[in-house]
Amino acid sequence: IIGSFLILVLLIYLHFMQPPSIDISLTLVDKLAHFLMFFFTMMWFMYITRKWLVAAVSLLLLALMLEWIQMNYIINRSFDWFDWIADGIGIVLCFLILPVLIDKYFDSSV
Questions:
Q1: What b/e sequence results for 71-87 when a residue is b if at least 16 CB atoms lie within 10 Å of its CB, and e otherwise?
Q2: How far, CA to CA in Å, does 99 sit from each of 30, 50, 59, 87, 93?
Q3: How far is CA 85 from CA 6, 91, 100, in A?
Q4: Are 89 and 30 in contact, with CB atoms under 8 Å apart?
Q5: What is the value of pTM for the model shown?
Q6: CB neighbours of 90 closer than 8 A, spacing ≥ 6?
Q7: For residues 91 and 48, what is the distance between their CA atoms, to the nearest angstrom?
Q8: List of residues 6+ apart from 83 with CB closer than 8 A
Q9: How far apart are CA 37 and CA 50, in angstroms?
Q10: Span 63-95, pLDDT tens digits
Q11: Which candidate in 35, 48, 61, 108 could, as Cys together with 90 as Cys, close a disulfide (CB 3.0–4.6 Å)?
Q12: 109: helix, strand or coil
């Protein structure tokens, strides 16, 4: 319980902290982080459900909603289309690549 509480406190703090000034190299790292977060989240949903298209569209809409909330309700944060595009690329690439990798490297007849 204490660990979950500390994780929630850290999450809230990170959402409301003053963002640092970002140079170009950190901007690319930010986009990579967006890509990876949504790639692995989509991978999780592809693992637990067969409704992959519903999961992909839902995650894409969630990403858009989070950007909108960030713009309207979090001080010193803004909507960034490139963040949303990086989220979407992560979702789409996982949606397209993961089934191919599973078919190639795992025996589905077991």
A1: eeeeeebeebeebbebb
A2: 27, 12, 18, 19, 10
A3: 31, 10, 23
A4: no
A5: 0.72
A6: 34, 35, 36, 37, 38, 39, 42
A7: 15
A8: 30, 31, 34, 63, 67
A9: 20
A10: 888 888 888 887 777 788 998 999 899 999 998
A11: 35
A12: coil
Q: How far apart are CA 3 and CA 38, in angstroms?
A: 24
* pLDDT tens figures, 16-34: 455 566 565 667 877 887 8
Nearest Cα to 56, choosing from 83, 28, 86, 94?
94
Q: What is the DSSP string of 22-90?
A: --HHHHHHHHHHHHHHHHHHHHHHHHH-S-HHHHHHHHHHHHHHHHHHHHHHSTT----HHHHHHHHHH
Tokens for 107? Answer: 């025996």
